[in-house]
Amino acid sequence: RLPYDNYQTWEAIEAYLDDVARRFPNRATLVNAGQSFEGRNLKYLKISSTNFEDKSKPVIVIDGGIHAREWISPPTVTWAIRKLVEDVTEPDLLDRFDWILFPVVNPDGYRFTFTNNRFWRKTRSTDQSALGSICPGVDGNRNYDFFWNTVGTSSNACADTFAGRRAFSEVEVRAVRDILHEHLPRIALYLSMHSFGSMILYPWGHDGFLSNNALGLPPVGIAMADAINSKALSPFPRYVVGNSVLVMGYAASGASEDYAHSIGVPFSYTYELPGLNSGMQGFVLEPRYIQQVWEETWLGIVAGARRAGDIF
Ligand code: 0X9
Ligand code: ZN
């Protein structure tokens, strides 16, 4: 079992995914989507109480750890694995849905935040430009092919919001893209776990306009936020739900929740999980809060799944 009293290394999380797949072969299937830039496995779990491949149920996709320094993200995804595979208290979620849970999309960056720079955000690729060897890394949440590198991004490899030399330059981002396309007609809900700010954001995040699903996105978002806010344990701000630009306060193109929505995922959200401090320190959430965050985030996931499933 993965401990939740502290943040876990990428190696521990990888070992946990292997272990769950080995212990629960009827319910969890390990997928290795290839290697990161530095050669780490890009592993995720497909979870199904029946047979994922019979394609009979809607799919829910949750990813975490695309931004390396947002450490509170991966444990919310590994906790969902625990609640869907090891310790099932909401069996309807398995009866109704198949799940794809990808806790650390950017293992190189995540690793780097443990060894070198706690505030690293990007991938660690070095083939981006002449500057690449001086300034490695691409912002994975600017690298999707959705109005790529048009707003809230940078073409400077040294910038934290560097969009990459082209859309989908990053193998880690391509791994998520491929998941979305492989299961597309079935994907009801896509959540990307980030921090911080206690916000649930929905498209469009590049221009602030609303999508064709402008009537569907708010209720599912609000259902998730209500479920979290109702758990009054939190020292964190109440969750706010809304359009990414409006709530976040800036436009940014090439993000995963916009891309997923643009290809047809009806319910697509970025979670900004809680943080307590401002500025960079907001990414540093004391380990004693991990449990609280997974507890409340799980309530949000449960509520979002049920509500999205009802409408989907
Ligand atoms: O800027 C981001 O990538 C996200 N915030 S973070 O502080 N975690 O980096 C927000 C993304 C919001 N979604 C879109 N702009 N589409
Ligand atoms: Zn982020």
TrEMBL record:
Q: Tell me the ranges covered by the Peptidase M14 domain, including all copies.
A: 6-308
Keywords noted in UniProt:
Carboxypeptidase, Disulfide bond, Hydrolase, Metal-binding, Metalloprotease, Protease, Signal, Zinc
Name the gene that codes for it: 101745363
Give a GO molecular function annotation for the protein.
Answer: metallocarboxypeptidase activity
Which cofactor is recorded for it? Zn(2+)
**UniProt record, GO biological process:** proteolysis
Put simply, this protein is called Carboxypeptidase B
* Active site per the UniProt annotation: 272
Family classification: Belongs to the peptidase M14 family.
Q: What are the GO cellular component annotations?
A: extracellular space
